[in-house]
Design brief:
This protein has 55 residues and is mainly α. It contains three helices and no strands. The longest helix has 13 residues.
Length: 55
């Protein structure tokens, strides 16, 4: 969902929200908004020593 609404600069394009909600049959829009905000604000660790995964 986040990638569908992403504007490519770290923000969400809210004008697409009604289309995404209707297309996927989402009934808990408030829950979706909460989850999108968590994804948007997530900052991964910079090194494996900080609890991140090594790749």
């Amino acid at each position: 969902m986040f990638n569908l609404l992403s504007n490519g600069m770290g923000a969400l394009d809210w004008s697409g929200l009604p289309l995404v909600v209707q297309h996927f049959g989402i009934t808990d829009v408030e829950g979706l908004l909460d989850r999108l905000e968590v994804i948007r604000q997530h900052k991964p660790s910079k090194s494996p020593d900080e609890g991140g995964r090594s790749e």
